[in-house]
Amino acid sequence: MSIQERSDETTRQTREGDCEHQTADLRYWLALLHTPGLGSRGINRLLGFSGGDPRPLFGAQHPAHSGLRQESIAWLRGPDWDQVEQDLRWLEGDNRTLLTLRDARYPPLLREIADPPPLLFVQGNAATLEMAQLAIVGSRNPTPSGQQTALDFARFLADAGFAITSGLAAGIDGAAHRGALETMTPTLAVTGTGLDRVYPARHRDLAHRIAEQGALISELPPGTPPLPANFPRRNRIISGLSVGTLVVEAAQKSGSLITARLATEQGREVFAVPGSIHNPLARGCHALIRQGAKLVETAEDILEELSPLLGTLLKVPLEKPAAEAESTPRRWDGEYQLLMAALDFDPTPVDLLIQRSGLTADAVSSMLLLLELEGFVSAAPGGRYCRTGKMGTEPL
C-alpha cells in the first residue's frame, strides 16, 4: 500500500470513527427525548446536572434522578433502544438533520429562550436556520383580503432578505409560506407533528416545496401525530427562531396570540395588522396593538423597525407588492360608480349593496363578479363583499 493510499485509509477510518461517535451521542440524546414524564423543561433541567451531556444521566444512579417519577427513572436505567433506532433510521433519509443544543449549528436566537427544544429534527437545508427570520402567523380561516395581505407581506419581506417562518397551518400560515416561495427565498415551517407526517394533509405539496427551498422543523420525533397539546408548544419555536412576529388576522382567543405573547416574553418585536372594527378576526390584532404591539400598514413599516437591528443581513427590497406599487386609480363610469360607492372595506351583504346603489340584483351580481376577477372586490363568508386596497375610486 502506497503512502497516499495509507493516508486515504487513515482519513476514511477517522471519518467513520467520528460518525460512529456522533451516532452514539445522538442515541443518548434521542433516548432522553423519549423519556416518559419529561418535557423539554425537564430534559433541560437534567442536562443542567450533567453539563449538557446526556450520557451520564443513564445508569443505575445519578443525583439528577432525585425527584423524578418512577417511570422516568426506570427509563433512564433501561431505555427502549428500539424507539431510538426508529429515529436514527428516519435520519438516514436525504436532507435530514438532527441538531442538539450542543451543536454549533443550533440557532443562537432559539438557544436564548427560557425553554429551548433540546433537539431539532430538520428536513431540508439546516443552514437556513441561520438566516434572519421573521414569523408571520394568523387565523386558520382568514378573509380573502387577510390571506392576500399575508402573501404580499411575506413576498415583500422575503425579497428584503428575511426567511419567512410560520407553522404550516391552513390560512395565514400557508399564505405566508407561499409568498416566500414565490420569491425563491427560503421559508421555514415549524410543525406540531413528527416530520414524517404533514398536517393538515392538504399541505403535503406545500411541505415538499418548503423542504426543497427551506426547511421543515420539529422538536417531536418521527411518528408523533397531530395532538392538540403539541401546537401551542411549537409556537415558542416559531417566535424563538425569529427577530419579530407579525400577526395578520386573529380572533381574540387564538393560537396566534399565544405566539405573540411568547415573542414578547422572549424579547422579540411584535407587529399587528389592524382591520375593521366589524371584523371578528381583527379583534386579536387590535388587542395586541393596545398591549404595545407595533401597528403596521405596509411591509416597509417592519423593515424600518428591524433594519437598524439587522444591518447588512437584509438587502434592499426588489419591488413593492402589487397592491402598493399601483399608483393610477381605475376610473369608474355609470353603474359601477354607484356600486363602488356602496361598497365598504367591511364585508357587506349583497342585499344592502342593492339597497344602497339602487341597482337591480342581476346588475349587482354581474358587476361584483367582474370586480372580483379584477381584484377590486373580495368575497367574504356569508355572501358578503368588501373592497380591497386596489385603487379605483375616481369617476369619469
Protein model, in words:
With 396 residues, the protein is α/β, with parallel strands linked by helices. The chain folds into three domains: 3-89, no CATH class; 126-323, Rossmann fold, CATH 3.40.50.450; 326-395, Arc Repressor Mutant, subunit A (Orthogonal Bundle). 45% of the residues lie in helices and 14% in strands. β7, α10 and β8 form a beta-alpha-beta unit. The longest helix has 31 residues, at 3-33. It is elongated. This is DNA-protecting protein DprA.
User: What is the SS-derived class?
Assistant: alpha/beta
Give the number of domains. Answer: 3
Distance between the termini: 90 Å
The number of helices is 16
Going across the major beta sheet, what is the strand order?
Answer: 1-2-6-5-4-3-7-8-9
Radius of gyration: 26 Å
Order of helices and strands: HHHHEHEEHEHEHEHEHEHEHHEHEHHEEE
Domain DprA winged helix: 324-383
Family: Belongs to the DprA/Smf family.
Protein name: DNA-protecting protein DprA
Organism: Sedimenticola selenatireducens
Summarize the entry for a quick read:
With 396 residues, the chain is an alpha/beta fold. 45% of the residues lie in helices and 14% in strands. The chain has 16 helices and 14 strands.
